[in-house]
């Protein structure tokens, strides 16, 4: 059961981090596109940044995202308690 929760946490965390990275990269693309006067590149970067941020918050605020977040936090706290009792 631990392996399933760890895999689920890895996948969920990876998905969240990829959305944040897309949003940050999109912001930099928009910044440099605006600095060099490339309007299409600036628009593309803004779309990437907005899409990445929207997807991140959509997943976090959806019922499935909330359930996964709470379940993973509960699993981590249970694992910490198990480690504490195993050490004593």
How do you describe this structure in short?
This protein is an all-alpha fold and 88 residues long. The chain contains 3 helices and no strands. It is elongated and about 65 Å long.
Keywords:
88 residues, 3 helices, 0% strand, mainly alpha, elongated
Helix fraction? Answer: over 70%
Number of strands: 0
Number of helices: 3
Q: How many structurally independent domains?
A: 1
Order of helices and strands: HHH
Biggest beta sheet summary: none
Q: Estimate what percentage of residues fall within beta strands.
A: under 5%
Radius of gyration: 19 Å
Kindly report how far apart the N and C termini lie. 24 Å
The backbone outline, from C-alpha atoms, is elongated
Q: Could you list the spans in which at least 5 consecutive residues all have pLDDT below 50?
A: none
Helix/sheet category: mainly alpha
State mean pLDDT (0 to 100 scale): 88
Write structural notes for this entry.
With 88 residues, the protein is mostly helical. It has one domain (12-87). It has helices at residues 2-35, 39-61, 63-87. Helix 1 runs antiparallel to helix 2 and helix 2 crosses helix 3. The longest helix is centred in the first third of the chain and has 34 residues, at 2-35. The protein is elongated and about 65 Å long.
Any chance you could write out the topology, listing elements then pairs?
Elements: H1 2-35, H2 39-61, H3 63-87
Helix pairs in contact: 1-2, 2-3
């Amino acid at each position: 059961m631990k392996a399933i929760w760890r895999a689920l946490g890895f996948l969920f965390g990876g998905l969240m981090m990829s959305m944040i990275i897309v949003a940050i990269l999109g912001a930099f693309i928009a910044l440099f596109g605006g600095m060099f006067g490339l309007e299409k590149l600036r628009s593309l970067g803004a779309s990437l940044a907005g899409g990445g941020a929207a997807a991140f918050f959509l997943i976090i605020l959806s019922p499935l995202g909330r359930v996964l977040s709470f379940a993973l936090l509960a699993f981590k706290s249970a694992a910490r308690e198990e480690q504490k009792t195993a050490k004593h």
